[in-house]
Amino acid sequence: MTILCESSATGVLPEPQLNLFGDDGAPLLPCLRAYDILLVNSSAGKDSQAMLDCVYERASAQGVADRITVVHADLGDVEWPGTRELAEAQANRYGVRFEVVAAREGLLERTERRGMWPDAARRWCTSDLKRGPIRTLMTRLALELDHIDRPRILNLMGLRAQESPARAKRLPLVIDDGASSGRREVTTCLPLFHWRVEHVWDRIRSGQTADLVHPAYAAGMPRLSCSFCVLAPTPALIKAAQLRPDKAREYAQLEQRIGHSFKANLTMAQIVRAAEAGENPDVTSWLG
Description:
Elements: E1 18-19, E2 29-30, E3 37-41, H1 46-61, E4 68-73, H2 83-94, E5 97-101, H3 107-114, H4 124-144, E6 152-156, H5 165-168, E7 173-175, E8 185-189, H6 197-206, H7 215-218, H8 234-243, H9 245-258, H10 268-276
Parallel strand pairs: 3-4, 3-6, 4-5, 6-8
Antiparallel strand pairs: 1-2, 7-8
Helix pairs in contact: 1-2, 1-6, 8-9, 8-10, 9-10
Protein backbone atom coordinates (compact mmCIF):
# COMPACT_ATOMS: atom_id res chain seq x y z
CA MET A 1 0.00 0.00 0.00
CA THR A 2 1.57 3.28 -1.11
CA ILE A 3 1.13 6.32 1.10
CA LEU A 4 1.50 9.59 -0.79
CA CYS A 5 3.14 11.62 1.93
CA GLU A 6 6.51 13.27 1.43
CA SER A 7 8.55 14.31 4.44
CA SER A 8 9.62 17.90 4.90
CA ALA A 9 12.99 18.93 6.28
CA THR A 10 11.68 22.47 6.80
CA GLY A 11 9.02 21.48 9.30
CA VAL A 12 6.30 22.78 6.99
CA LEU A 13 3.36 20.42 6.54
CA PRO A 14 3.41 18.48 3.28
CA GLU A 15 0.73 19.26 0.74
CA PRO A 16 -2.32 16.96 1.00
CA GLN A 17 -2.42 14.31 -1.69
CA LEU A 18 -5.25 11.85 -2.13
CA ASN A 19 -4.27 8.20 -2.26
CA LEU A 20 -6.91 6.90 -4.68
CA PHE A 21 -7.84 3.34 -3.83
CA GLY A 22 -10.61 1.40 -5.48
CA ASP A 23 -13.54 -0.32 -3.80
CA ASP A 24 -11.55 -3.34 -2.65
CA GLY A 25 -11.85 -2.54 1.02
CA ALA A 26 -8.92 -0.10 1.32
CA PRO A 27 -9.67 3.34 2.81
CA LEU A 28 -9.58 6.52 0.76
CA LEU A 29 -7.25 8.80 2.69
CA PRO A 30 -4.87 11.67 1.96
CA CYS A 31 -1.52 12.11 3.67
CA LEU A 32 -2.55 12.51 7.30
CA ARG A 33 0.67 14.29 8.23
CA ALA A 34 -0.54 17.17 6.07
CA TYR A 35 -3.17 18.04 8.71
CA ASP A 36 -2.84 19.46 12.20
CA ILE A 37 -6.12 17.98 13.48
CA LEU A 38 -7.70 14.66 12.47
CA LEU A 39 -11.33 14.98 13.53
CA VAL A 40 -13.13 11.63 13.39
CA ASN A 41 -16.92 12.00 13.55
CA SER A 42 -18.41 9.08 15.47
CA SER A 43 -22.02 8.01 15.82
CA ALA A 44 -20.70 4.80 17.43
CA GLY A 45 -22.23 3.02 14.44
CA LYS A 46 -20.56 0.52 12.13
CA ASP A 47 -19.23 3.02 9.58
CA SER A 48 -17.72 5.29 12.24
CA GLN A 49 -16.26 2.25 13.95
CA ALA A 50 -14.58 0.91 10.81
CA MET A 51 -13.40 4.39 9.83
CA LEU A 52 -11.75 4.99 13.20
CA ASP A 53 -9.83 1.73 12.88
CA CYS A 54 -8.58 2.75 9.41
CA VAL A 55 -7.64 6.28 10.43
CA TYR A 56 -5.84 5.16 13.57
CA GLU A 57 -3.86 2.55 11.64
CA ARG A 58 -2.78 5.05 8.98
CA ALA A 59 -2.11 7.84 11.48
CA SER A 60 0.02 5.53 13.61
CA ALA A 61 2.04 4.50 10.55
CA GLN A 62 2.69 8.18 9.82
CA GLY A 63 3.42 9.08 13.44
CA VAL A 64 0.45 11.40 13.92
CA ALA A 65 -2.02 9.36 15.96
CA ASP A 66 -1.79 12.03 18.64
CA ARG A 67 -3.57 14.42 16.26
CA ILE A 68 -6.77 12.34 16.32
CA THR A 69 -9.85 13.65 18.12
CA VAL A 70 -13.04 11.60 18.05
CA VAL A 71 -16.18 13.72 18.30
CA HIS A 72 -19.66 12.47 19.09
CA ALA A 73 -22.68 14.74 18.57
CA ASP A 74 -24.91 13.68 21.45
CA LEU A 75 -28.58 13.77 20.43
CA GLY A 76 -29.88 12.73 23.82
CA ASP A 77 -32.60 10.14 24.25
CA VAL A 78 -33.64 10.13 20.59
CA GLU A 79 -30.47 8.13 19.99
CA TRP A 80 -30.30 4.44 20.73
CA PRO A 81 -29.54 3.90 24.44
CA GLY A 82 -25.84 3.59 25.20
CA THR A 83 -24.68 5.32 22.02
CA ARG A 84 -22.61 8.06 23.64
CA GLU A 85 -20.99 5.62 26.03
CA LEU A 86 -20.14 3.25 23.18
CA ALA A 87 -18.56 6.03 21.11
CA GLU A 88 -16.34 6.88 24.06
CA ALA A 89 -15.42 3.24 24.65
CA GLN A 90 -14.43 2.86 21.01
CA ALA A 91 -12.22 5.96 21.18
CA ASN A 92 -10.68 4.81 24.46
CA ARG A 93 -9.73 1.50 22.90
CA TYR A 94 -7.29 3.43 20.68
CA GLY A 95 -6.23 5.83 23.41
CA VAL A 96 -7.27 8.92 21.44
CA ARG A 97 -8.94 12.12 22.56
CA PHE A 98 -12.73 12.00 22.84
CA GLU A 99 -15.07 15.00 22.76
CA VAL A 100 -18.84 15.24 23.08
CA VAL A 101 -20.82 18.13 21.63
CA ALA A 102 -24.54 18.83 21.93
CA ALA A 103 -27.00 21.48 20.91
CA ARG A 104 -28.77 23.41 23.65
CA GLU A 105 -32.15 22.22 22.43
CA GLY A 106 -32.98 18.59 21.63
CA LEU A 107 -34.66 17.22 18.53
CA LEU A 108 -38.14 16.84 19.99
CA GLU A 109 -38.06 20.21 21.73
CA ARG A 110 -36.91 21.91 18.54
CA THR A 111 -39.53 20.07 16.47
CA GLU A 112 -42.27 21.24 18.81
CA ARG A 113 -41.04 24.82 18.71
CA ARG A 114 -40.85 24.79 14.90
CA GLY A 115 -44.17 22.99 14.55
CA MET A 116 -42.79 20.60 11.96
CA TRP A 117 -40.47 17.63 11.57
CA PRO A 118 -37.30 17.81 9.50
CA ASP A 119 -37.35 16.11 6.11
CA ALA A 120 -35.03 15.33 3.20
CA ALA A 121 -35.29 18.87 1.84
CA ARG A 122 -35.00 20.57 5.24
CA ARG A 123 -32.53 18.53 7.27
CA TRP A 124 -32.17 21.05 10.04
CA CYS A 125 -31.68 18.15 12.44
CA THR A 126 -28.25 17.56 10.89
CA SER A 127 -27.27 21.21 10.60
CA ASP A 128 -28.51 22.29 14.03
CA LEU A 129 -27.79 19.23 16.16
CA LYS A 130 -24.62 17.89 14.55
CA ARG A 131 -22.84 20.17 12.10
CA GLY A 132 -23.22 23.38 14.12
CA PRO A 133 -21.93 22.00 17.45
CA ILE A 134 -19.08 20.18 15.68
CA ARG A 135 -17.98 23.41 14.00
CA THR A 136 -17.92 25.03 17.43
CA LEU A 137 -15.55 22.28 18.53
CA MET A 138 -13.40 22.92 15.44
CA THR A 139 -13.01 26.52 16.59
CA ARG A 140 -11.88 25.40 20.03
CA LEU A 141 -9.44 22.82 18.68
CA ALA A 142 -7.93 25.35 16.27
CA LEU A 143 -7.50 27.89 19.08
CA GLU A 144 -5.58 25.30 21.09
CA LEU A 145 -2.97 25.33 18.32
CA ASP A 146 -2.15 28.99 18.87
CA HIS A 147 1.36 28.47 17.49
CA ILE A 148 -0.11 27.67 14.05
CA ASP A 149 -1.47 30.56 11.99
CA ARG A 150 -4.24 28.64 10.16
CA PRO A 151 -4.48 24.99 11.27
CA ARG A 152 -5.57 22.39 8.76
CA ILE A 153 -8.42 20.20 9.98
CA LEU A 154 -9.30 16.94 8.26
CA ASN A 155 -12.95 16.31 9.07
CA LEU A 156 -13.48 12.57 8.62
CA MET A 157 -16.96 11.14 8.15
CA GLY A 158 -18.13 7.56 7.57
CA LEU A 159 -20.54 8.29 4.71
CA ARG A 160 -20.61 5.71 1.89
CA ALA A 161 -21.85 5.98 -1.69
CA GLN A 162 -23.79 2.71 -1.32
CA GLU A 163 -26.06 4.23 1.31
CA SER A 164 -28.10 6.51 -0.96
CA PRO A 165 -28.13 8.19 -4.39
CA ALA A 166 -27.61 11.56 -2.70
CA ARG A 167 -24.50 10.38 -0.86
CA ALA A 168 -23.14 8.78 -4.04
CA LYS A 169 -22.98 12.26 -5.59
CA ARG A 170 -20.64 13.61 -2.91
CA LEU A 171 -16.92 14.11 -3.35
CA PRO A 172 -14.72 11.96 -1.09
CA LEU A 173 -12.23 14.78 -0.44
CA VAL A 174 -13.15 18.46 -0.67
CA ILE A 175 -12.35 21.76 1.02
CA ASP A 176 -15.34 22.75 3.16
CA ASP A 177 -15.74 26.48 2.53
CA GLY A 178 -18.61 26.69 5.01
CA ALA A 179 -16.53 25.32 7.87
CA SER A 180 -13.28 27.02 6.86
CA SER A 181 -12.43 30.52 8.00
CA GLY A 182 -9.49 32.87 8.37
CA ARG A 183 -8.48 30.85 11.44
CA ARG A 184 -8.72 27.34 10.01
CA GLU A 185 -8.89 25.34 6.82
CA VAL A 186 -11.30 22.41 6.91
CA THR A 187 -11.22 19.52 4.46
CA THR A 188 -14.00 16.94 4.51
CA CYS A 189 -12.85 13.38 3.87
CA LEU A 190 -14.99 10.26 3.34
CA PRO A 191 -12.51 7.38 3.76
CA LEU A 192 -15.12 4.64 3.25
CA PHE A 193 -16.81 6.30 0.28
CA HIS A 194 -16.36 3.34 -2.10
CA TRP A 195 -16.87 0.62 0.51
CA ARG A 196 -19.78 -1.77 0.51
CA VAL A 197 -21.33 -2.85 3.77
CA GLU A 198 -19.47 -6.18 3.77
CA HIS A 199 -16.16 -4.27 3.76
CA VAL A 200 -17.31 -2.39 6.87
CA TRP A 201 -18.16 -5.50 8.84
CA ASP A 202 -14.97 -7.26 7.70
CA ARG A 203 -12.93 -4.35 9.02
CA ILE A 204 -14.76 -4.34 12.35
CA ARG A 205 -14.29 -8.08 12.83
CA SER A 206 -10.55 -7.76 12.20
CA GLY A 207 -10.09 -4.51 14.13
CA GLN A 208 -9.57 -3.52 17.73
CA THR A 209 -13.23 -2.91 18.59
CA ALA A 210 -14.88 -6.13 17.38
CA ASP A 211 -16.46 -6.50 20.83
CA LEU A 212 -17.81 -2.93 20.86
CA VAL A 213 -20.69 -3.15 18.38
CA HIS A 214 -24.00 -1.56 19.32
CA PRO A 215 -26.71 -4.17 20.10
CA ALA A 216 -29.22 -2.39 17.82
CA TYR A 217 -27.55 -4.15 14.89
CA ALA A 218 -28.12 -7.60 16.37
CA ALA A 219 -31.73 -6.55 17.01
CA GLY A 220 -32.24 -6.00 13.29
CA MET A 221 -31.44 -2.34 12.62
CA PRO A 222 -29.22 -1.66 9.56
CA ARG A 223 -28.06 1.75 10.78
CA LEU A 224 -27.37 3.47 14.07
CA SER A 225 -28.84 6.88 13.37
CA CYS A 226 -31.59 8.38 15.48
CA SER A 227 -33.90 5.63 16.64
CA PHE A 228 -36.61 7.21 14.49
CA CYS A 229 -34.98 8.90 11.52
CA VAL A 230 -37.21 10.83 9.11
CA LEU A 231 -35.17 9.39 6.24
CA ALA A 232 -35.61 5.78 7.37
CA PRO A 233 -37.75 3.34 5.36
CA THR A 234 -41.03 2.13 6.86
CA PRO A 235 -39.74 -1.34 7.89
CA ALA A 236 -36.89 0.23 9.86
CA LEU A 237 -39.27 2.58 11.65
CA ILE A 238 -41.61 -0.27 12.58
CA LYS A 239 -38.70 -2.32 13.89
CA ALA A 240 -37.48 0.67 15.91
CA ALA A 241 -40.97 1.15 17.37
CA GLN A 242 -40.98 -2.49 18.48
CA LEU A 243 -37.61 -2.02 20.15
CA ARG A 244 -38.50 1.36 21.73
CA PRO A 245 -42.32 1.43 22.11
CA ASP A 246 -42.40 4.17 24.74
CA LYS A 247 -40.27 6.51 22.65
CA ALA A 248 -42.41 5.77 19.57
CA ARG A 249 -45.54 6.74 21.47
CA GLU A 250 -43.83 9.95 22.61
CA TYR A 251 -43.15 10.81 18.96
CA ALA A 252 -46.77 10.05 18.08
CA GLN A 253 -48.02 12.33 20.85
CA LEU A 254 -45.80 15.14 19.62
CA GLU A 255 -47.02 14.55 16.07
CA GLN A 256 -50.59 14.99 17.26
CA ARG A 257 -49.80 18.16 19.21
CA ILE A 258 -48.12 19.97 16.32
CA GLY A 259 -50.45 18.63 13.61
CA HIS A 260 -47.60 17.69 11.30
CA SER A 261 -46.97 14.14 10.03
CA PHE A 262 -43.65 12.53 10.85
CA LYS A 263 -43.24 11.83 7.12
CA ALA A 264 -45.29 13.20 4.23
CA ASN A 265 -46.93 9.82 3.52
CA LEU A 266 -46.53 8.15 6.89
CA THR A 267 -47.53 9.16 10.39
CA MET A 268 -45.86 8.02 13.56
CA ALA A 269 -49.29 6.89 14.74
CA GLN A 270 -49.38 4.45 11.82
CA ILE A 271 -45.91 3.21 12.69
CA VAL A 272 -46.96 2.60 16.29
CA ARG A 273 -50.05 0.69 15.21
CA ALA A 274 -48.03 -1.51 12.85
CA ALA A 275 -45.50 -2.23 15.60
CA GLU A 276 -48.22 -3.09 18.12
CA ALA A 277 -49.91 -5.36 15.56
CA GLY A 278 -46.82 -7.53 15.64
CA GLU A 279 -45.69 -6.98 12.06
CA ASN A 280 -42.37 -8.63 11.22
CA PRO A 281 -40.64 -6.02 9.05
CA ASP A 282 -37.87 -7.10 6.71
CA VAL A 283 -35.21 -4.47 7.39
CA THR A 284 -32.61 -5.54 4.86
CA SER A 285 -31.97 -2.08 3.43
CA TRP A 286 -32.25 1.55 4.41
CA LEU A 287 -33.47 2.44 0.93
CA GLY A 288 -37.11 2.34 -0.11
